[in-house]
Model the fold of this input.
Amino acid sequence: MMASDTASAALGIELVELGPGRAACRMTVTRQMINGHELCHGGYVFLLADTAFACACNTHGPVTVAAGAEITFVAPARESDVLVAEAVERTRYGRSGIYDITVRKSDGQVVAEFRGRSREMR
Done:
């Protein structure tokens, strides 16, 4: 899936860990990602978390997409920060699943908490 993900590739997002129901992705905040407050735009933080979510929920085989997601921004990220999004499967039921994704800076500070709901396509 990541080999065909041109959106994530264009932002320099790398898959750094993958296992059943788990994934971690890394991204460096670039100047182009900075908003008018000199902070990383929340849309980029969401996209990083969503990419880790997509990788984790697609580890079981069937094509799986997001049915919904929400994010809570905890702390700002700034230019040159390296962010890592770690996705963990909480539960799967029928064709659906729930995943929690934590986005952290390289020093371990939490930037955002994301919860995604997945749905297998058939």
In short: DSSP finds two helices and six strands in the chain. Residues 42-57 form the longest helix (16 residues). The chain has a mean pLDDT of 97.
